[in-house]
Specification:
Layout (H helix, E strand, L loop, with lengths): L7 H4 L8 H5 L1 H13 L12 H20 L1 H4 L8 H12 L1 H11 L13 H6 L3 H19 L11 H8 L5 H5 L4
Helix pairs in contact: 3-4, 4-6
Length: 181
């Protein structure tokens, strides 16, 4: 870390995690939102996503990176528990090499570069086994709620296991927030 740089996360109170815009800065945040709102929608959907939806995607991507940075011992190397759209935002950020390095080393709480490696879910799931994959996915929930509060309706679509617990098992967001790791 540059000797005069102060990680943004440590400048805030321990109860207040920085926002995506604070972590990225206005220029890069706006660039990412513009880039992903300009992309066509999913196949069969001609419309690009709206800026509000993309802003929440960026928020959840930065929350994911924040948690990895804060808890490398507990979360490093685990399967990505978020949807593909969040991974695509991470890929975009990685390509902004100077800004991504600064984000990792100077703005996120761990102060270390966060590496990325793509691996298919089937390959990952076969390596540790389904039970371990499920346990690892659930590990994120109490860490997320401790840092950011309970998942909200805007976070729900982006976190695979949380959406499964809510949509398939019928747990409320309050019940999900109460889960312990």
């Amino acid at each position: 870390m540059h000797p005069t740089a102060t990680p943004l996360a440590s400048a805030l109170s321990p109860d207040a995690a920085p926002t995506a815009q604070e972590l990225l800065g206005d220029t890069l945040h706006d660039e990412v939102v513009r880039h992903f709102t300009a992309k066509p929608g999913t196949p069969g959907t001609p419309d690009a996503p709206d800026a509000t939806h993309v802003t929440y995607q960026v928020r959840e991507c930065l929350r994911y990176l924040y948690l990895i940075s804060l808890h490398p011992d507990r979360l490093g190397g685990l399967f990505l528990p978020v949807e593909q759209d969040i991974d695509e935002i991470w890929h975009y950020l990685i390509l902004q090499t100077r800004e991504y390095r600064e984000l990792c080393e100077q703005r996120l709480p761990g102060g270390h570069f966060i590496h990325h490696r793509s691996i298919a879910y089937d390959a990952y799931q076969s390596a540790p086994g389904r039970e371990r994959a499920a346990e690892e996915a659930l590990r994120w929930i109490p860490l997320y709620t401790a840092a950011f509060g309970p998942f909200d309706e805007n976070a729900l679509p982006h976190w695979t296991v949380v959406r499964f617990l809510h949509d398939e098992l019928g747990l409320s967001l309050a019940e999900i927030a109460a889960l312990e790791g």
